[in-house]
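Lab notebook: predicted structure, single chain.

Context: the supervisor wants predicted structures on file for every construct in the current expression panel, including those that have not yet been purified. This is the next one on the list. No modifications to the sequence; it matches the entry in the shared construct table.
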Amino acid sequence: MRVLQIIDSLALGGAEVLVTNLHSGLSERGIECEYYLLRGGQTPLAQKLIRQGAQIHTPIAASVYSPLHIWALHRHLRTFDYDLVHVHLFPAQLWTACGARLTGRMLPLITTEHSTETRRRGGSYRVIDRWMYRQFHHITSISSATTSNLLAWLPELQAKLTECPNGIDVDVFALAPKARKQIVFSVPENTLVVLCVGRLELPKGHDTLLRALSLVPGAMLALVGDGPLSGQLHALARQLGITSRVRFMGTRMDVPQLLKTADVYVQPSHWEGFGIAALEAMASGMPIVASDVPGLADVVGDAGLLFPVGDEVQLAQKIVTLLADSALRNRLGNCAQKRARSFGINKTLDCYEKVYRDVVGEVVG
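Prediction complete. Output recorded below exactly as produced.
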């Protein structure tokens, strides 16, 4: 089976990581994937796919919000022969729905819902979303929270929706080697390190974490990731007087090693469809503090500490509690690692393989 995966870009993010992680497993099951990006770039995830022999298409250089992608996708889908097209994230979903419609072909289309919240869920956007989702033969969602929120927005999608929870290769994180803090974080070995991984954008709640750090004496914070709020977060760290205790580390491909080396992991998201970065931390055996939001809270369960979203005081209290109690850190880390085993990548692969083969069978006959 030949599948085209369409996504906005391969910048570091949950959807992008999932798409990349599925590649080799799908190939072993006889499903060969190519990738179509609205925005190209030699990102670490793109380079990982290229090393695995994947073909990546980036036909035009335009904003991901440019309608020019409709015509580029139309041409691509008319030129190349695929058994199925799998689309991730908006606006790739909208442009693909339009481009595929213009081909006049009965091409099997599916899309995955990756978030519990979108800026489109209100007012006149319902008309656009209703038309867009109608163009897809099937929809998958990454968590029960994502499913519930999508159906609350468009209940009529129930009949063509399947839940395929995200998964990871747990052993990549469980068996990663520990590094020296002095080498990877540029701090003395006895420094207590709080780690957070994710794009520097509004939904991830990094501002809450920085404010919490100002209430936690002595600890150092490592932020892994890049994004549009980088400048604002640097300014906030200066305003709070914690610049010397924050490491903005940018995009890294040694995350498994960083997770093994830090002491506490925090995911302060305002909303989260699943929380794949938190799951990676759990698999590494790290104690977790996470915001109590649907999707993320479902992944963490009772294997970590939850705090009310946006509440830097309670977040700081939970960080202080963990940093002061190594026995509690070890206990929660062990619980997190055991829980992570229930989110192995093979379950995710099983689900997508079944959806792919079922949809192709139904549409093509």
